[in-house]
């Protein structure tokens, strides 16, 4: 993983988003076409209205039976909705089904993070497809909805991602490396110092230190006037 900023919100649906009236800013990452949203567009849709700057809080590798419910409690108390990219084999654990159901019922966005947290770029097309479809199935069984948004583990996309028009691949722009440090204070400091309107924050809800950091980040950024939205709202608004 890269520290600091890593550009790349979406790898697919460029034509669809243009059709919807967006003005995407195209850049390159690892030789692939990706899309970001300018900070001006997420700050304000109408220059005559004052709109809060928005950011998206995202979590990978869950759900975790111990730490995820604590995170959900904190987000609910603060009226914040986040985006959770779930690992299929974690979703299938009996104790986690009710957690996924709660995520969905409380308005969080649920995305696909593969079934086994594999590097999709190293798999044959059929194997990568199976990883994603297995996860789709277990999530849909609980929520009744098949996820559209995907975060590829390690940020490594499947070789045919540009042909997969049924999925939207989501990256991140602020990565405090919480999985490496497991240091709540350091994670909070990195995010608060690097944050800009329109950013996508990457955290992992399987670490208690990251859950504590997430709640502190929410409190600090809300105090600075930021609003937290799910990634679909960040992209589509």
TrEMBL record:
Signal peptide: none annotated. Coiled coil: none annotated. InterPro entries: Glyco_hydro/deAcase_b/a-brl, NODB_dom, Polysacc_deacetylase_ArnD. GO terms for cellular component: membrane. Pfam families: Polysacc_deac_1. Keywords: Carbohydrate metabolism, Glycosidase, Hydrolase, Membrane, Metal-binding, Polysaccharide degradation, Transmembrane, Transmembrane helix, Xylan degradation. GO terms for molecular function: hydrolase activity, acting on carbon-nitrogen (but not peptide) bonds; hydrolase activity, acting on glycosyl bonds; metal ion binding. The chain crosses the membrane at residues 6-27. CDD domains: CE4_CtAXE_like (cd10954). The keyword Protease does not apply. Residues 53-229 form the NodB homology domain. GO terms for biological process: xylan catabolic process. This is Predicted xylanase/chitin deacetylase. It comes from [Ruminococcus] torques L2-14.
């Amino acid at each position: 993983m890269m520290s600091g900023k890593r550009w790349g919100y979406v790898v697919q649906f460029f034509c669809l988003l243009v059709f919807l009236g967006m003005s995407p800013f195209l850049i390159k990452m690892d030789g692939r076409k990706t899309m970001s949203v300018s900070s001006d567009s997420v700050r304000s849709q109408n220059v005559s209205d004052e709109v809060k700057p928005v950011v998206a809080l995202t979590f990978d590798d869950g759900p975790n039976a111990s730490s995820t419910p604590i995170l959900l409690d904190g987000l609910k108390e603060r009226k914040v909705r986040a985006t959770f990219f779930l690992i299929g084999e974690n979703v299938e654990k009996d104790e986690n089904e009710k957690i996924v159901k709660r995520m969905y019922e409380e308005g969080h966005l649920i995305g696909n993070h593969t079934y086994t947290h594999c590097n999709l770029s190293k798999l044959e097309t059929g194997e990568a497809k199976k990883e994603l479809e297995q996860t789709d199935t277990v999530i849909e069984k609980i929520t009744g909805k098949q996820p559209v948004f995907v975060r590829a583990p390690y940020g490594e996309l499947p070789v045919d991602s540009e042909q997969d028009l049924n999925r939207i691949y989501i990256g991140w722009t602020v990565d405090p490396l919480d999985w490496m440090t497991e240091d709540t204070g350091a994670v909070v400091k990195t995010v608060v110092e690097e944050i800009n309107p329109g950013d996508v924050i990457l955290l992992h809800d399987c670490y208690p230190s990251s859950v504590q950091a997430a709640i502190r980040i929410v409190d600090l950024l809300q105090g600075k006037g930021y609003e937290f939205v799910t990634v679909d709202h960040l992209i589509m608004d």
